[in-house]
Fold:
Amino acid sequence: MDNLKGKTFVVTGATGRQGSAIVHHLIQGGAQVKGLTRSPQSKKAKRIAAFGAELVTGDMNDLNRLKTVFQGASGVYSVQNPYTSSFAAEVRQGKNVADAARATGIAHIVQGSAGFGEKTGIPSWDSKLEIKEYMQSLGLPLTVLRPTAFMELISDPGFYPMASTFHHMPKLMGADKKVTWLAIDDLGAIAAKVFNDPQKYIGQDIKLASDLQTVNEVRELYQEVLGRKAPHFPMPEFMFRLFTGDDLIIMWKYLRTANYDWLTTDATLAILPEAQTVRTWLAKQKG
Structure:
């Protein structure tokens, strides 16, 4: 990716799952990366430093610090985590990123988002929509990437309690409702490609999915590929709510009746033809 070479990009939330994938692929593409983190001594921070990233201490609540970090950067990947703070804090941080990008003349900002790009009443989707609208109001050169369900939900116990994907999701959404899956590593590869060709992608709002599989279909694939049953822990809903809050419950109830048959894998595969299916992703989890 020749257009990345010699350029510097800032990745907010750099030690998170999304952020670290973005850092990895930008560096693989030849870019220099400033990874914004509040805890540069943490194991996660040291991991992205091992990729070759420059660790930069900062907090998205600090607008002046963001302006300093953004100086000289060609692009910014902006992602906020409401689950570690609040949805109001997520919006505030996203607006700070926008204000800092405008003040420093950032040529391309890519916003890590979610959902379908419309008001739904789902807190974690509507907050991201508010950030997008603010960025647009400032006239920023913006690309929005919208993954919905990461494949890591299928097998990673650290992502959510293991009661999530194979118990509460089908119970609330429906076991035969298609889920829009994307691997986090593929999000990183897509973001790097988007940064590599800004003129093609600025102004786009891209809904990402590399595979459409129901929970029942994923359960069957899990058994077939890994040779064991998918994890299933029947946690009561009130207890699940204590772990996650209301957001996922609201989301899955919404998706039960929502019509998103229009969403295909075409846009994702046009950017990253080798994006993983659930089957190929599960095959990598063996051992």
